[in-house]
Fold this sequence. Notes:
12 helices; 78% helix; mainly alpha
Amino acid sequence: MILTIWKKEIESYFTSPLAYVLIGLFSLITGIMFFNLLVTYTDGIQAIPQHMAQDISFVEEVVIRLFANINFLFLFFIPLMTMRLLSEEKKQATIDLFWLSPVKEWQVVLSKGLAALSLIFSMLLMTIIFPLIVWGVGIKDFSILGSAYLSVFLNACCYISMGLFFSSISHNQIIAGILSILGIIFLWMITWGGHLNSNYLVSEIFNYIGITSHFERILRGLIGTQDIIYYVTFVLFFGFLSVKSLGRRNW
């Protein structure tokens, strides 16, 4: 049943302009960002003495900045993908068709989340050309590339789970999208609040609750157990809320 719903959602993405617009726009924006970062890096290398060129890290100047910008783009792209997943079904009452079959609420949430994650995977797949370009010009420093992709992928899982929840509590997909954007911004602001707080304990709590600190550690290859636990707990928590929301037929 999960596979059936997943296929239905994938078809709904790719039989409408939405998937092609999102993938095309994402590829265009990330391509421009990558080109600008690469040009800035090469100009910086050429502008300083040769013995100092090794002090400019390709990973820091290009890879980390690129994937940090990709995470920022998800602030807008993922709510556009998730805002209709459940709210439109509720508005058109087509979600009632699920309840006439033996499908469970968690199966609906999981399959729709996997469909959105599949679209994200398609978008990230377009960026594989960037390492190939860099390899072609002779730069071999890809030590952090795997963790960089993992960091944005895990963040996407969190944003999708949150977006699904907001989509499940609203009949209006615009409202669901706005709530998703505000929710992601709030996750970032929690970490910023931790940096500004002078109390060590409060700062550590804020840093752990906020998603930015976990993202930055994994982005730099510092993958810890606490970060994996955070992402798994986050996704399961909002998935649980979405399931409970669907279980309340009067929402």
